[in-house]
Amino acid sequence: MLRAPSRRKRKDPPQRLNLIPILDAVFIFIFFLLMSANFIKIFEVQSDVPIISNTPPSNKKPLALTVRVYNSGFNIYRGVPSRLIKKIDKIGNNEYNFESLHNYMINLKKTYKSERSIILEPKVDIDYEVIVKVMDAVRLLRTTDEAIYQKDTKTDEDIKVKYLFDKIVFGNIRS
């Protein structure tokens, strides 16, 4: 009697691909990507765009308050044409004197209570953090600052001023 060849009867099961090492490598790669990623918060600082108006100008002279930020400190201008009214130099350790700027803005606000606009003109090489701190110094009235009151035109009551110069317009974006 003849026997059938053994290789015909014996069939090897199909080989399966081992995915465990590949999945391990993928999870380790994802872990390192997450650990090396920089998660940052992006904040938006609101600023107005200069508007051209067709209304005739009033007899009241505009304050046209301008703060120019230089590497040496701040120059504060007012009026049209602008004239320098205050220069604030950096303090001893080569840092900007934001406190003096803020105090000077409080004194200006006491004189010009209804004025809310200010023009900010930073130079090209000024850091973003410095610009934000300047905006905070000229915009925010702190709770520890002296209270400033303004007459309401409708009710003739004294209303506490909440902001200094909160309508910030950038004067030179490209220069």
Report what the structure shows.
- With 175 residues, the protein is α/β, with parallel strands linked by helices.
- It has a domain at 66-170.
- The protein is built from 4 helices and 7 strands.
- The chain has helices at 6-9, 20-36, 98-111, 128-139; strands at 66-69, 73-78, 83-89, 117-122, 149-151, 158-160, 167-170.
- Strands 3-2-1-4-7 form a 5-stranded mixed β-sheet, with helices on one face. Strands 5-6 form a two-stranded antiparallel ribbon.
- β1 (66-69) and β2 form a beta hairpin.
- α3 (98-111) runs parallel beside α4.
- The termini are far apart.
- The mean pLDDT is 81.
On the 0-100 scale, what is the average pLDDT?
81
Largest sheet: 5 strands, mixed
Taken in chain order, the helices and strands follow as HHEEEHEHEEE
Helix/strand/pairing class, anyone? Answer: alpha/beta
Q: State the distance separating the first and last CA atoms.
A: 102 Å
Strand content: 15-25%
Question: Can you tell me the residue ranges where pLDDT is under 50 for at least 5 consecutive residues?
Answer: none
What is the rounded Rg? 33 Å
Shape: elongated
Physical arrangement of strands within the biggest beta sheet: 3-2-1-4-7
Query: With helices defined by DSSP (H or I, 4 residues minimum), what is the helix count?
Result: 4
